[in-house]
Amino acid sequence: MDKSATYDATRDRVEHYFDRSATKVWERLTSDAPVSGVRATVRAGRDRMRDLMLAQLPADLHGARVLDAGCGTGAMAVELATRGADVVAVDISPELIKIAEARCPDGLRGQITFASGDMLSPELGQFDHALAMDSMIYYGASSVARMLAGVAPRITTSMIFTLAPRTPLLMTMWRVGKIFPSSDRSPSMIPESCARVSKALETLGAGGSLREIERINSGFYISTALEFRP
Question: Is the model's pLDDT at 182 over the cut of 50?
Answer without folding.
Answer: no
